[in-house]
Write a structure and sequence with these properties.
15 helices, 2 domains, amino-acid biosynthesis, 40% helix, 406 residues
Amino acid sequence: MSVEQAPVQRADFDQVMVPNYAPAAFIPVRGAGSRVWDQAGRELIDFAGGIAVNVLGHAHPALVGALTEQANKLWHVSNVFTNEPALRLAHKLVDATFADRAFFCNSGAEANEAAFKLARRVAHDRFGPEKHEIIATVNSFHGRTLFTVSVGGQPKYSDGFGPKITGISHVPYNDLEALKAQISDKTCAVVIEPIQGESGVVPADVAYLQGARELCDKHNALLIFDEVQTGVGRTGELFAYMHYGVTPDILSSAKSLGGGFPIGAMLTTEALAKHLTVGTHGTTYGGNPLACAVANAVLDVVNTPEVLAGVKAKHQKFKARLEQIGEKYGLFTQVRGVGLLIGCVLSEAWKGKAKDVFNAAEKEGLMVLQAGPDVVRFAPSLVVEDADIDEGLDRFERAAAKLTQG
């Protein structure tokens, strides 16, 4: 029997939640595919994808099935024991990538935390404590723990929390000369997002990633790709490093990996993995059977030629229409990104007003994202239907019209 739930509304957020978020005025309560319904029963099209998470949309039958089946078997045993879904998932990820070994956790920040700790431990074991410096890029985003927020290149997120973790420097993104000038034999790792997500959907140049790979090899440093936002089919390849043809030493994944169920993974080679010996790193929930069962189902659907080819085709559909809308209403100057991670760069007149575009879209029944104040970001389901793309972009055009002619 179901217990009668006490009614809640958006105003409750301001009474009972820590005020570190400013959520939209409506509360989504149900989703199916690329459609979402709020408390009032209003239907919206979802081009936000839970910030590049809902890789198969809402309530996908394969994911609901996997979760329900596992929920009736085993939820949690801790890492004192291993479990079947975790082992199956590790096999799938190892078989599909450069990696030999997987470490599971619950979020992108945790995956990056593990990546950075591994890089420092490898350098410590092989070369000594002097080799501990990490180079990241300006405007990068790697998570919200103290370590990951210090590696992230946005001081607004790391200032005001006491002394920062030392041995971290930041160089401009896509600037190989700057990286060359900064890297040294004290560098243990270079951390790059193949496409900068939070700072505006900025893809790396192939030559930049190739150059970073060469510099890391020359200085015995590890190349870490943060693929939390770009991984699991988002670019039309399973991981973005495949799109670029540049292989990292360590890769972090989360967001899309669980299709909405929290899970993160750090992937690496056997030679590096062996430095995390028993007791050196851990997590209570990481690799739990529920999360791994869902992630297995996600990979079974996403890592197929049909879905990956579909992502590339849908990119073209989005891009062509968005460029048309941007030009017609003078709203943005550029549409950039790869696969179904797309950023529309606002024109001079609309700089700093991404939130206004977000609000206008919501009024027309469309969920979009910002990536900083100057970029409108789209990260829909990878299997979003063409009819939903058309209808969603019709709504977006109506929002653009009202906003610009308002």
